[in-house]
Design brief:
- The chain has about 280 residues and is an alpha/beta fold.
- The protein has a single domain, classed as Alpha-Beta Barrel (TIM Barrel), CATH 3.20.20.140.
- About 45% of the residues lie in helices and about 10% in strands.
- The protein contains 11 helices and 8 strands.
- It has helices at about 20-30, 40-50, 70-80, 100-110, 120-125, 130-140, 160-170, 185-195, 210-220, 240-245, 250-270, and strands spanning about 10-15, 55-60, 85-90, 115-120, 145-150, 175, 200, 225-230.
- It has an 8-stranded parallel sheet with strand order 1-2-3-4-5-6-7-8.
- β6 (about 175), α8 (about 185-195) and β7 (about 200) form a beta-alpha-beta unit.
- α4 (about 100-110) crosses α6.
- The protein is globular.
Length: about 280
C-alpha cells in the first residue's frame, strides 16, 4: 500500500465564513507579504482534502478582538458538526478577555465538541510568555491542547525563547508550536525547544523554504513522535505541501507517525469523542 492511500491528518488549517473568506485569506497573505493559494472557504478546503485523501483536518480561526471570539467559535463548532468527522475544531480566545470570560468560553467550547485552542501572538499582539498569555494558560489549565503560532523574526511576540518560557511555566499544558517551533527562526527553535516534554511542533509554512535536509534534522531534534503534518491552509497548496513532505527521506514508521499517528494519540489524550477507527 502506498503512503498516499494511508491516513493523513492535516493539523493546521484556517477557515472563514464565505462572506469574509476571500478578504480574510488575502489579509493573511498580506501580513506575511505572500500570496495565498486558496480561498479559505469550508467548501474549498473540503475539496482540497478530498482530492488528496486527507481524512482529518484541524480547523481554526484567529480572533483579532475579543468581541469576535463567540461568533468564531460558533462557526467552527457548526462546521465541525456538519463535516461527517472530517474536521477537528480548535477554538479561539483573546488575551483581553477576563478570567471569567475565558473560563466560560473554554467550558462552552468543550461543550460544543471543540478539541483545542488556537492562539496567534503576532496577530493578537501579546507576548507568548507575558501576563495576558499566562492568564489564558492558567484558565485552560491543561484541559485542551494549545496550537500556537511560533516565530517571526520581524516581531518578538512568539519567539522560540518565549514559547520555551511558557512551556517551562505551565508543565501541565500541551502546546503545539506551529512551523517547526519558529517560523523564520527555525534553528533557534531547535536550540531552545527540542526535548520539551509538553511540546509538539507542526510542519506548516516551513517546507516551502526549509531544505529537505534541514527539515529532517529538525524532525530528528524534536523527535519523530513530536511532529505533526500541517499545511496552514489557505496559505499553501495542500498537494504541494504533501509533495514536499514526501521528498523528506524518512522511514515508513516516521512518516506514519507524522502524517496521522501522533495526531491521533494527541487528540485521544483529551477527547474520547475523537474516533480513529
Amino acid at each position: 500500500m502506498s503512503y498516499m492511500s494511508k491516513r493523513i491528518i492535516d493539523f493546521h488549517a484556517h477557515i472563514f465564513p464565505d462572506k469574509i473568506a476571500e478578504r480574510a485569506s488575502t489579509g493573511i497573505g498580506d501580513f506575511y507579504d505572500m500570496t495565498t493559494f486558496n480561498t479559505g472557504t469550508v467548501a474549498d478546503l473540503k475539496e482540497r482534502l478530498y482530492e488528496n485523501s486527507i481524512c482529518g483536518c484541524v480547523v481554526c480561526s484567529v480572533a483579532t478582538v475579543a468581541e469576535q471570539v463567540g461568533n468564531i467559535n460558533n462557526f467552527i463548532a457548526e462546521t465541525v458538526a456538519d463535516s461527517d468527522g472530517l474536521f477537528i475544531g480548535f477554538c479561539s480566545l483573546h488575551p483581553t478577555m477576563s478570567e471569567i470570560e475565558l473560563d466560560n468560553e473554554i467550558n462552552r467550547a468543550i461543550s460544543m465538541g471543540l478539541s483545542g485552542v488556537k492562539l496567534h501572538p503576532d496577530i493578537q499582539k501579546f507576548e507568548a510568555d507575558g501576563a495576558s498569555a499566562c492568564k489564558m494558560y492558567e484558565v485552560i489549565d491543561g484541559r485542551l491542547p494549545v496550537l500556537i503560532h511560533a516565530g517571526d523574526s520581524r516581531y518578538n511576540f512568539s519567539s522560540p525563547a518565549r514559547i520555551a518560557e511558557a512551556l517551562n511555566g505551565f508543565p501541565k499544558m500541551t502546546m503545539i508550536a506551529a512551523h517547526f517551533g519558529g517560523w523564520s527562526e527555525w534553528d533557534e527553535a531547535v536550540l531552545v525547544l527540542a526535548g520539551k516534554e509538553n511540546l509538539y511542533v507542526d510542519s506548516s509554512s516551513s517546507l516551502y523554504t526549509v531544505t529537505p535536509k534541514k527539515a529532517r534534522e529538525y524532525i530528528s531534534s524534536f523527535g519523530e513522535e513530536r511532529v505533526l503534518f500541517g499545511t496552514d491552509y489557505p496559505m499553501w497548496d495542500i498537494q504541494e505541501e504533501l509533495k514536499r513532505f514526501y521528498r523528506l527521506e524518512l522511514n515508513d514508521s516516521a512518516r506514519e507517525k507524522i502524517l496521522s499517528g501522533n495526531a491521533e494519540k494527541l487528540l485521544n489524550r483529551f477527547l474520547t469523542i475523537y474516533d480513529t477507527s
